[in-house]
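Lab notebook, bench 4. We co-purified these components, and the gel suggests they stay together. Before we commit to crystallization screens, I want a quick structural picture of the whole thing.
Request: model the full complex, all chains together.
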Amino acid sequence: MALYELPEWAGLAPALILAATSLVLLLIDSIDPDSSNRPALAGTATTGALLALAVTGWFLAAGVGDPDGRGVISLFGDQLVVDQMSLLFTFIFTSVTAMVTVASYDYLRGHSYQAEYYSLVLLAATGMATMASAASLATVFVSFELLSLSSYALVAFLKENRGSVEAGLKYFLIGALSSAIFVYGISLVYAVTGSLQLTAVAEAAAGTELVGVLGLGVLLVLGGVAFKTATVPFHFWAPEAYEGAPAPISAFLSSASKAAGFVVAFRVFTVAFPVEQFLEIGVDWVFAVQILAVVTMTLGNFAAATQDEVKRMLAYSSVGHAGYALIGLAAITGSNSDLVLGAGMMHLVVYGFMNTGAFLFVALAEYWDVGRTFEDYNGLASRAPVASLAMTVFMLSLAGLPPFGGFASKYILFMGAVNAGFWWLAAIGAINSALSLYYYSRVVKALWIEDPSDDVAKVGVTEQPVGIYAAIVFAAVMTVALLPAFGPVSETAISAAAALVP
Amino acid sequence: MLIETLIVVTFVGSLVTFAAPNRWAGELAFGISALPLVGSLVMYSQFDGTGNALMGGELAFEQSAEWISLGAYSLNWHTGLDGISMPLVVLTTVLVTLAIVSAWTPIDERQSQFYGLVLFMEAGLLGVFAALDFFVWFVFWEAVLVPLYLLIGVWGGPRRKYAAIKVFVYTNVASLAMFIGFVALVFNLPVDTFDLPTVAQALANDQLQAPGWTSVSALKTGAFVAMFAGFAVKVPVVPFHTWLPDAHVEAPTPVSVLLAGVLLKMGTYALLRFNFTMLADVATQYAEIIAIFAVVSVIYGALLALAQQDLKRIVAYSSVSSMGYVLLGLVAYTTYGVGGATFQMISHGLISGLMFMAVGVIYNTTHTRMVTDMSGLADRMPVTVGILVGGAFGYMGLPLMSGFAAEFFVFLGAFRSGTLSGAPVFTAVAMFGIVIVAGYLLFAMQRTLFGPFRLDTDYEVGPAPLHDVAPLFALLLLVIVLGVEPDLFFEMIRDAVNQMPLVEAGLGGGH
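Here is the predicted assembly.
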């Protein structure tokens, strides 16, 4: 052991940094409760997120969690684990958090409780980072709730706004129900296996006779995860919550929080409920996931195609993308399951940037008061060309067109599904992808092709908010750069997936 | 590195143009597009490739580098040119430069964005013809769509929004079908790469293994159908052609030029590479069905053209017809058939570009394209009309023009096809298309160009400015040069085509 070798618990550094930053924000607030020193608050939050991001990047580069590099770190009696998947997802969470806090700087102008806002964002991020590392159903649930409780408050943050409060309430009620379902599922799994630690669950489940109870438990756990990932049929909170929430929070929830749901799904279902073993004892959760994937992408995309408001369209498209990412789990029974599972992770990485960027553009539009519908966006390109160009990048990348990162991740996902023998999943994904082109291009059309109507020309675009612009441009640059630089992402994701599926 | 330089220069040039002021964006774009033009001509003069890129031929300007690794599979940057792609690269650079000049008059708003997108599209097109790894190729293939969508959507005619979305969605759906077909093929081969030559050679060596639930021949047929459907939309083959007239009519002239001149060739080029080279056995198995598609495209496209009153629509539908010849040549599997089809891609690119530009010049002056609205234009704009008539003769296949050479090769090759049963019948029916082509072109010209001058609008009609006529003249010159000396391209094409599986070097061999 070299002198500079870090102790093992330092593997949790990203989560610890996020938690500490959250506390520092509370400290600042308690020293000066009436503080509206926006630069200090946003700056602290962003610094914390960026620091966590930097540490995550450093760990990934140094080979922490890589079985062939510095190895997987297991902590607290296997309750938490730091491997490549947890680091890859923490990378998503921290970058999204940084973008959201930067953008919130402008968005929150004139709002009260700013310190609490940033503190909650970072607490939620802490929850996500812990979800990525959770290796026991207990830690999964605790971190899950840390994320959820912070999110409820954040959605309802615009308390003068009826929509926001209503969305927060709706989110909270459905979330509480889902948590109950989730924890009930956990209790059933525990009843059968007598264990909460994921690998131990898999071992104990091997010879069980209580297949029915176990099956129900697995199904309920799947339900809990489906809520967090906004998967049909647990999705109906999503459009409301995303629409009512402050736009940066919509970005945060639909990118980072969704990815957090997926990291739990990927780990729990591969480690605790290994598919072949569970098929043997008669618990076919893959079939359920396949149905979920198909229904989710189809319903999400069709619903998105019929929306009149951009933010709702994005909300439903986010449901659709949950369906794409589920392909990673749904095709896991085929050959080369590490490719398709890894592809699911790659898609979430790219999605973290392109979807956050898209919602931040909506935040910008809200900041300018240009309205919510497609028509309200007409001709914005002539008045805000840089932001519109960035939004075009996000839309085309979400639709899966080159030369953007979404192209690579989506097509590698389809490729992985075909490779695993699930060509029909890829075909359904492809049809949905073609449909999505229609509504994504509506935004592009509104921005560039349509002429602004007279009353639209009067409002908005009075100034260029630095924070939101910086976040949007950063997201756009990353979305573009992720295509040529896809190599490292794919390698990490595949290697992370290979560690999960034997 | 020459290809990469070409693509990068064009791409960076597009960004520079995008940021440039509108006032001189057109001139700037022309200057930038001259770089890949000169580059491609230099490449043409240094071209030393032999044989077919996919069948183990010696590639010119080959480059290979690692890009993305997917566990067992790898996606690599692999580019290179053979006798089939080299002429298409030259065609692209030539047509883009001329299209940019022809845009100076009609494009009068947001010029920098327009020219930026055109150059962006050029970079994509160059990539399509040069890439030899499926994923790289697919990146470029799809990247062409975005600028096309915006170019039609922003600068197009009255129904531009509808046309733009239609093109976008149609061709994207087609690409997805093709993607799944090709990927299904690769994953059942014992190769861990998407490198097109590797895949093609593994297929040629019968290394395809079907998964348990299906057979090799069913898998091949399925993949063939998926890819054929995908590319047929792009070509377009009847009945997948309905997006084309909408797109052409709404697109601004320079975009129509590129759409007909180069973008349709992406479809036939891909058909040649994927369907007819990699899955030659399936193609010959279903040769008659494909030939029916081809002949129907020829006749039906020509009949549709005959029924139009809009000059631009006439030219647009005639593209459907001309692309039918390409398909017929491909399915013939003879040196002259496939070689002629490739030559027809080049020839049609030049001639249809010329026709669209000429119609565009007429429209700029008269503000109408309806045959019924005008007559006797020859009196007022003799140079433009002269060139238009020249182009029309090229279309009809007058000797010593490239159209003649191309169609002659195709018919020669198709007539003697050994794999297509009933080849003489198919050829004879397709040849009848020429009669209809001559019919509608002569009919339209006689009514619009000759006779006493009449125009149902109030515009002054005079000779077009020099920069409008110059690209027309350049294209006519190229059409004649290629007609007189087809071997400028045909030699390298023949060289590449002869190595394709199942191709018979009929008529005394290709050499």
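Residues 335-366 of chain B form the longest helix (32 residues). Worth comparing against the SEC data before the next meeting. The interface with chain A takes residues 66-73, 135, 138-140, 142-143, 145-146, 149-150, 153-154, 160-161, 164-165, 168-169, 172-173, 176-177, 179-180, 183-184, 187, 211 of chain B (CB under 8 Å).
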